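Researcher: Please generate the 3D structure of the following complex. Treat every line as part of one assembly.
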Amino acid sequence: MTVRTAELLMGLALAVLSAYFMWKSAELPIGWVPDVGPGGGAWPFWLSTAMLASCIWILVNWVRRVGPVANNESPLFEPGNFLPVFLVGSALTICIALIGGIGVGGFEGIGFYGALPLFLIFYLKVMGNHSWLVTIATAVIIPVVTFLFFEIMLNITLPKGMSEPLFLPIYAFIYSL
Amino acid sequence: MLEIFGLLAQGFTVALQPFNLMLIIVGCAVGLFIGAMPGLGSVNGVAILLPLTFLVPPEGAIIFLAAIYYGAMYGGAVSSIMLGIPGASTAVATTFDGRPLAKQGMADKALTIAAMASFVGGTISVILFTFFAPPLAHVALTFGAPEEFALMMLAFATFIGLGGDDLAKTIFSICIGLVLAAVGLDIMSGEPRLIFGDITGFLHGINFLVLAIGIYGIGEMLWTVEENAKAGGKSMLSEATLTWQRTKNNIKEFLGTWKISTMGAFLGYFVGIVPAAGATPGALLAYGIGKQMSKEPEKFGKGAVEGVAAPESANNAASTGSMLPMLTLGIPGSPTTAILLGGMVIWGLEPGPRLFTSNPDFVWGLIASLYAANLFALILNILFIPAFIWVLKLPFTILAPIILTLCLVGGYAPTKDMHDVWLMLLFGIVGYLMRKLDYPVAPAVLAIVLGPLAEPALRQSLLISSGDPSIFFTRTFAGPIMVVALILLFMPVLMLIYRRLRGGGKRKAPSESAAE
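Model: Done. Output below.
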C-alpha cells in the first residue's frame, strides 16, 4: 500500500466516523432549545460537521494532488518495518485482553501482574533478543516495582482478575505493618 | 509596600523553620518524581498525598503540597523531553521542541533549559503574586463565561498556527478532540450523549489522559519501534552526554532566551489567574507567541531552545497564578488548586479575602515557601539530570516495555476502568497511523483538555445573551480577546488567498515540518 492510497483510505474512514458522530449527536437536540440555550447535541453535532467538512477538504486535496502526502507514491511501510510494529501492537492488544478478559466465556483475565510478565518476556526475548537472565530479571523486577510504587505507595489498585486471591495475603501482611 | 516586605519577612520565618524547610525539599523531590512519570501530574501528586498532610499543622501542610505542586510542574517537562509523553496536560507544549532536542542527543540541554525557564517563570510569578495579588484578583473576578470562551477561542486559534501546514488536518484534529471531550453526560441536561450504543464505559466521558497517553505513549512507541527497525535495531533514543562545559553552554544558551522566558512568565501568570484557564492554555499561548517573537521561528518544532523555554516558564508561572484566586477569593484556578482548596477547608481554614488578615502566617508562609520551593526544585532538577539521561542509555528494547507498562497503568489509573485502556490502545494505533499521514495530533490532545471548559462557557454565554453571539464582542475583556483570536484563526486562510493571488494560483507544497 502506498502512502497515497493510505491517505485516501484514512480520509474516507474519518469522513465515515464524522458522519457517525453527527448521527449520534443528533440524538439530542442540536438546535436552540427555548430557555435552555443550545441543545445538548449542538456542540458535538456542529463540530462533527466541521470534521466532515475538513475530511472532504482532505479528500479534495487528495484528488487534486495537493501536498506531499497526497503525492507520496512510496510504500506506507518499507519492507521489514511493518512486522515489528505489528508484533508490538498485537502483543499489547493480547496483554490488555489477558489483564481484564474480553467478556467472552466468563474469562475474567489473569490480571495486570499475570499478563505483564508475559508481555515483558515476549518483548525482551523476541523483540530485543536479550539473554534469558536479563529477560527473566526484567520480567520479575518491573511488576514488583510497579506493585510497590503504585499499589503500596500511591494506592492505585490495578486489575487482578482471577489472580486476586493470590494478593490477599500480601495485602494482609502490608496492612498489618 | 513596606508592609508587604514586613509580612513577607514574617512569612520567611515560617517557611525557613527547619521542619518546614525539610517539607519543602521532600515535597519538591516527591513532586519532581511524580511529575516525571508519564500520565501523572501535579494534580495526581497533590490528590494522592493530601491525606498525609493531616499529620502536620496547616502551614506545614500547604507548604508541603505547594512544594509537590512546584516539583511536579518542573517534573512534567522531564517525561515530555525524555519520552515524548507529556507528564501532564500542562507540559504538552514542551514536547513540541523538547522531544526533537532529545532525539538530536541534546536532552541535557532541553532539561537544563526547561528547569531554568521554570525557575524564571516561577520566580517572576511569585514576585508578581506578592505585590499585585488583591487588585489582579478583582480583575479576574469580573471574568464570566464570555471571557472564558474568548480565551479558549484564542487558545484554539493558536493551534491553527501550531499544527504544521496542512490546515484541513489541523482543523480535523481540533474538532475531533473537542467532540471526544463531549462524550459522556451532557453537563446541562444530564442526558447521556455519544455513548455509542449504551457502552457504559463512555458514560464517565473520555479522560484526556486516555487520549494523551494513547497518542503520546503507545502511538509514540509504535512510531519509535518503526524508526528503530529502519535504523537496523540501533536505538533511536539517542545518547546525551553531560559535562561541565556542555552545562555552561546550556546555561549560556538559556540566558539568550531571557526575553521569551520573561514573556512566558508574565503571560502564564495572567492566564493562570483566570479561573478554569490555567497552565495548559498558558503554556500553549506562550509557545505560539514565543514563535512569533523568535528570530528563527522556522526552528520551532524541530528543537528550538526557545520552544522549550516559553511553555515551561509559562506553565510554572500559571501554577502560581492559579493560586491567586484560590487564596484571595476562594475560587480555584486549576484542578490542582481545587484540591488545595479542599485541603484548606479540611485543615479548618476559611478561604477568601479574610484569610490574609485572619491567618497571615499561613498566607505569607505559603508565599515565602513558594520562593524557597522554586529554588529547591531548580537545584534538585539540575542534580537529577544525570539520572534522567542515564535512563536514556538503556537499550530501547528494555526501555520500550517499561514505558508501555507505565502507559497501561496511566491509562487505567484515572478512572479504574479497563474500557479506557482499550480506548487508549485504539487511540494509540489510530494516532500512530494518522501521524504517518501527517495529521497533527497535538491539537487533538489540547482540544480534549480544553473541550470540557469551552463548551459550558459557550453555552452559558449564549444563554445569557439569548442566543446573540455579539456578547463575545461587546464586553470590555471578551471583545479584544475574541478579535485577536479571530484574526489568528483566519490568518492561514488570508495568507493562502494572498499567496494564491501572488503566485498565480500555484500553491507551494507544505513543508516537511508537519511530519514531526
